[in-house]
């Protein structure tokens, strides 16, 4: 029960802080791919130079984005997730591009960081990330999931990228290592 409440609370807080304005209203974040694949993914050390990415998943299968673009988005998502969990404000503000509006504002004023830090603190010690994967395309957005290992309660970071590569939305999701 505690785990379910934590995931719901984290998702609500991040949606409220990251903004789900007009540009992201068409985003369907409730779909789950029913296909289960076995992949082995080793835990990465936070800050590792080349994050592990999984070119499998719904968006990769539909070939709506190129492999190199998909890999770049997944690498960005892993680095962003690690900076967000570590509450590295300078990197969050300076190393990533955001859509104008609520998303950019919540990063610049630290609200997104604060919400995720709170969720991370209640999840136990951060152990690292696992292989990211491309989720479903939702309109002009490409969704990437990054599994996050914590001592008490793992969860996934769900990041939506606009067609121009800017981060348009962030929330937490139920933990899954593979699509």
UniProtKB/TrEMBL annotation:
Biased composition (Acidic residues): 39-55
Biased composition (Basic and acidic residues): 22-38
Protein species of origin: Blautia hominis
Lineage: Bacteria, Bacillati, Bacillota, Clostridia, Lachnospirales
Protein name per its UniProtKB record: DUF3887 domain-containing protein
Residues in the signal sequence: 1-18
Key word Signal present: yes
Annotated stretches, region: Disordered: 20-70
Keywords (A to Z) from UniProt: Signal
Keyword Signal in annotation: yes
